[in-house]
Write a structure and sequence with these properties.
Length: about 100
């Protein structure tokens, strides 16, 4: 997953399950992605999602309550090339 193509493929798989490409957390692992997104209509509760390369994306269920100030970010707008080149995804992920 740790390539721009792998990340874009995971977003493409997660987006229909989530209904959008906005997530409050998006963690890329070598062979999978785990993500969190606000429950539709909520500003506090989130659901958990996952994708393992080659498999289907899944909603794993309720995750809990987000910390104050957490906002969703559209992961399609992230410069993943910048993130991958620095090897620190957060460096380019959230402004």
């Amino acid at each position: 997953m740790l390539t721009t193509d792998g990340i874009r493929a995971s977003i493409a798989e997660l987006k229909p399950v989530r209904g959008t490409s906005k997530f409050t957390s998006f963690v890329v692992h070598p062979d999978s992605v785990s993500a969190q997104a606000l429950v539709k209509g909520s500003t506090k509760r989130y659901d958990r999602f996952s994708y393992a390369g080659g498999g289907a994306a899944d909603r794993e269920g309720a995750g809990g309550t987000v910390m104050s100030g957490v906002e969703a970010t559209d992961v399609e707008d992230i410069n993943w090339v910048c993130s991958l080149s620095t090897k620190i995804f957060q460096a380019c992920r959230w402004p």
